[in-house]
Amino acid sequence: MNNNNISQIEPLLETRAFIYDVLRRAFLQEPTLEFLTFLNDGSLFENFPFQEEQQDIREGVEQILALIHEKDLTKAEVFDSLHWDYTRMFIGPDRLPAPLWESAYLSKERLLFQEQTLKVRQAYLKYQFLPRNFMQEADDHLGLELDFMYQLTLKARQAMNEGNIEKLQQIFTDQKDFLENHLLQWVPELALKIRENAQSSFYPGIAKILKGFLTLDLEALEELMDSTQCCVK
């Protein structure tokens, strides 16, 4: 790949990795004090990528900023309320208003560890990606799916640095396939459920950013695939 193409692709890969990292950390587990301290600096959201290009991202960023300007996310009272919001919506023990598993939206039975889970696992295993708590947590948990996209973006950056264009294109193709056949098939419904059931504006804001970014990332991947096509011998 020539230097001009590298200079065009590298910033986009860095930005994609940053956003997937933030989003996976938001949904993998209950909010930690470390993560909320990281988010509490309003400059992260004030400068959040793509908010000018994508309405959902912009509206989600505005929700988060309004909350940060009103409250300190690291204060015990706020921390406890966000922790409870996550637990109540995503963990239980009562009926979950917004489950974080793909199978809960796409399987006929709406049960975990169904065909959807196995399809997600097949995508993971192609890259030897084994989620934490493998066989204990269903593979199609949102946090794990976002972590997979994050890890693939890191692999794409490595392939770019090595000049391995065929591998780079394969990663982009597989990421596009994963977005189309998995994340974008159920995240919009999840985002709606979060908006309807959250007790604070934090998770609705994050979910809106997620929904908007996944839509935008599909377009970005198509552009990345086109930009590397000319470099294939």
Automatic annotation (TrEMBL):
Pfam families from the UniProt entry: Nitrate_red_del
Entry keyword set: Chaperone
UniProt keyword GTP-binding, yes or no: no
The keyword Cell inner membrane is annotated on this UniProt entry: no
Taxonomy, superkingdom: Bacteria
Name of the protein in its database record: Dehydrogenase
